[in-house]
Design brief:
147 residues, Rossmann fold, 4-stranded parallel beta sheet
Amino acid sequence: MSTIKRVMVICTGNICRSPMAAAILQEELRSNDIEVTSAGLGALGGHEADALAVMLMEERGLDVNGHRAVQFDGQRGLACDLILVMETAQRRAIEQNWTLLQGRVYRLGHWGKFDVDDPYQRGEQAFRKSLTTIDRGVGQWLEVITA
């Protein structure tokens, strides 16, 4: 997968999971000339990242304060080499609605066969649990992307 130059991370509202995963991936891939973006299937367009997501990223020295939620569409997807989603249902929805994207869409937890739970409005513990799962998925994908 070394031909990957653009990665998009997808969740539902694009204010919790995907901004965190994209920030972590971008930080890890910064020396590889790979662009990482994020979007949501039901994005809260223009909304800032959730305050808990901002806090958890700040703890790592990552800044998502400038993040604004973006709605996913097929054109955005076609511009990417790899699309990482949080849940199996999200993968199915993208591949059904935008058939040209089949073969580019994988779960963040593809290699470990897991979904990343949505922490939205569920408190700090849920965010930390989701972030632990995101870290696991990002680590597994980094091995593939940088191979």
